[in-house]
Amino acid sequence: MTLDYPWLHETVRKRFESDAAMEAFLPQPLSAAELEAQGDDRYLSAMTQRVFQAGMQHSMVDAKWPAFEEAFAGFQPKAMAALTPHDIERFMQDARLIRHRAKLETIPKNAAFVLDVAREHGSFARFIAQRGARLGGRSAAGFLRLVGKDTFLLTSHVVERLQLAGVIEGTPSSRRNLQAVQDAFNALQQASGRPLSQLSAMLALSIHPMF
Predict the structure, then answer these.
(1) pLDDT higher than threshold 70 for residue 133
(2) In the chain, what's the furthest Cα-to-Cα distance?
(3) What's the pTM value of the predicted model, to 2 decimals?
(4) Going from the N-terminus, what domains does the chain have, and what CATH number goes with each?
């Protein structure tokens, strides 16, 4: 079964005062060229921000992020990959930061990952621009959305709409359900011409207005 895009558009449109207000609210993904133009430090920063957001209030993490940018000198991958346990201990004493040791310890590991990918593809930004959608998992999807890559998020409201539409039964964890989700998004995109991120937001808004 596929979702009906005209119904989805009309349902979401009613949440807003005008077409322009709806369009302004929906996410605007970056183009491949714009994604590739970003420095790899921006991807490492976003990756780290997403790690800290997991299980925490996003607004609290976002409010502290300028301090993270300052403390970690802009998240240059080579410098971050060289962080030592002594450095991590030093950051654990910095009251400006969220002092979560396990999350801080992901920074040099993820920096090494960024560098490995950059060596293979020319830059991590190029990998994201050309192939990033292949990254799996909800956290990865959240990271991709954070950096502007067009992707959908399987939030609780999106999943609820897919369930109500008969696209899936239960959670989208099995290969069959994941394929059904992908097919539904492909059909919506073909019918609307909209980015996946906007369709994802519209599905969520059809359940919960967020206002």
Answers:
(1) no
(2) 57
(3) 0.82
(4) 5-29+152-207 (no CATH), 34-135 (1.10.340.30)
